[in-house]
Design brief:
It is built from ten helices and nine strands. With about 280 residues, it is an alpha/beta fold. The structure holds adenosine monophosphate. Adenosine monophosphate binds next to helix 2 and strand 5.
């Protein structure tokens, strides 16, 4: 399995693959591969002839006080995971390969990026949309696979490809969780044992909120319930608990499903996010 660090290498490999009439699937990641990523890669492996995983800790999506420097980097281990899963190509560029020093073009997705995480992480989704556009231009995949764990990111990418007519099908994959419900994340490894024990309260809170929504609770009531459960856990500090329309991320028009319940909370310096969509 080749590991390419240069854009022109990827282009020439993909050109050959396409010449054979094979389909190309892309799974964009920041590496430190875990079971959540593996689920995306397996799904891609089932669907596409040629599977590319990109591993790039994208500086433009991190804010000045974010964890860019300490974000786990383990290319060798990740390559072994990818190989084991039958991935055909790893694309692991350097920041210099991806961004010229005078690079000044960005992809900005409107309203959707102002809500939820976007309200607290200015510039984050601009960085995400820009790097995903670049990856689409480099790999030209037929399909790209994203996790529902990062629900707002998924929505932003879906809107971007629709608005800019990008010829890529987006495949959404369900959130993979630890046995106690905690959404698997590369950032979970920052948690102390005490924080790790406290963290499942996030999913418990979402489940309580979801049950309330199914029982006819309003969005505001569900938000209050989710917030109260998390605030009850001394090792978690709630950033937001929102109940919104899952398509627009705006206030829901009426009580009951469909509703997206979304949370961001800190355990120490570690920011954890999770969500549940309560379907109609
Ligand atoms: P990341 O490396 O954190 O940028 O994530 C790369 C991709 O994996 C994104 O599409 C994420 O939504 C997805 N992902 C991360 N964690 C999970 C998880 N626990 N379950 C499903 N997908 C995930």
């Amino acid at each position: 399995m080749p590991i390419a660090s240069r854009i022109d290498e990827v282009r020439s490999i993909v050109r050959r693959v396409r010449g054979n009439g094979d389909s190309v699937g892309l799974v964009p990641t920041m590496g430190a591969l875990h079971e959540g990523h593996s689920a995306l890669l397996r799904r891609a492996r089932q669907t596409d002839d040629f599977v590319v995983v990109s591993i790039f800790v994208n500086p433009t999506q991190f804010g000045p006080s974010d964890d860019f420097e300490k974000y786990p980097r383990q290319l060798e281990k990740d390559a072994a995971v990818a190989e084991e899963l039958g991935v055909d190509l790893v694309f692991a560029p350097t920041a210099e390969e991806m961004y010229s020093p005078d690079s000044c073009t960005y992809v900005e997705v409107g309203e959707l990026t102002e809500e939820l995480c976007g309200a607290f992480r200015p510039g984050h989704f601009r960085g995400v949309a820009t790097v995903v556009s670049k990856l689409f231009n480099i790999v030209s995949p037929d399909r790209a696979y994203f996790g529902q764990k990062d629900y707002q990111q998924l929505l932003v990418i879906e809107r971007m490809i629709r608005d800019l007519d990008m010829p890529v099908e987006i495949v959404a994959c369900p959130t993979v969780r630890e046995a106690d419900g905690l959404a698997i994340s590369s950032r979970n490894e920052y948690l102390t044992p005490e924080q790790r024990s406290a963290a499942p309260a996030i999913y418990q809170a979402l489940q309580k909120g979801a049950e309330a929504v199914r029982g006819g609770a309003s969005a505001k009531e569900a938000e209050a319930m989710v917030a109260a459960h998390i605030e009850n856990e001394p090792l978690l500090e709630l950033q937001y608990a929102r109940a919104v329309d899952p398509h627009t991320l705006a206030e829901p028009g009426s009580a009951g499903p469909p509703i997206l319940l979304a949370v961001a909370a800190f355990a120490g310096d570690t920011r954890l996010i999770d969500n549940i969509v309560v379907e109609e």
